[in-house]
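Backbones bend. To wit:
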Amino acid sequence: MPVQKGQFVDAVKPALEGLLTDLQRTTEVLRRHNRKSKDYDDKWESTSSQFSYRAKRTSGVENGDLDRSLRGQSTGRDSTYRDSLRESGRDSTRLDSSLDQTLPADFQTIPRGDCGQCGQAIVGEVIIALGQMWHPEHFTCYQCGDQIGHKLFFEKDEKAYCEDDYHENFSPRCGYCQLPVKERAISALGKTYHQEHFTCAQCGKALDSEGYHEKDGYAYCNEDFYQTYAPKCKGCEKPITAKFITALDTHWHPECFVCDVCSESLFESTFHQDGVTFLCRTHYLLKYGNVCYQCQEPIAGKCVTALGRKYHLDHFCCCYCNKMLCSGTFKHLHGRLYCSPCFDRVVV
């Protein structure tokens, strides 16, 4: 596992220290057990020798010495034998008791460490948490005292809490229901919400922390926010949610802002107002400006006036040779313009 910024070392250090302490304690227990085992062997050999000696004496009484007893051996010697036999039995009983008390405690069960709550050695099941070892019954919630055991717990300021008490004391409160937020939370409007409680103020649809609009402290989905608060297009009366055009205090979708006559888009082009409508330049000039007699197109710039008509400068020319004419140097016949040479040649 790669180590990043010492996080792995910090995470396993308490466990490694606990295992090292465990090993040291186990070594000490085994050493004490070996010493007690040696003491027991020495004691056993001594007791066995004494018991063997006394048994031989007993055997002698039972077999070859019976005649001497019958011949009047003193009562005091018989009493001494009986006392010695009883003492040997008591030594054997004490030795068995010593074995019963010593072997189960040191040999059959090895302490795993000291409990973080009571300070006593832990034999059997152990819980490792918060960098310490615990008896299962001593690993409890700091708030309510209930046993945590192997259940989920949370740590705060080096203290263990059960799930309910941790959330009750430290988790943020939902801005809608005021209960602790235990799982996924949504942060919005300066508050924290359960995922299912962060909803549109208009339609109640669930929202997320990125796809909503705020107005007067309330959250709205896109559709309801635009429908309620967005400006309406003058052309289609629908909410404007993106780029728009403002003209004469009205708002338009770019695709709705068109000439009232030809429906040509007026977006990023010259337009003219015609009452409450808009006209492109061409239709505005056609309606209100000068129109060239020759091409019937509006005249936007300079023009030539002749015979009560108006012409574009480049359209005021001889109808025969297309030579540009100048005012006062042209002739006409049947509404057609001629230069002098062409008129003389064609007409005359």
Remarks:
- The first strand starts at residue 127 and ends at 129.
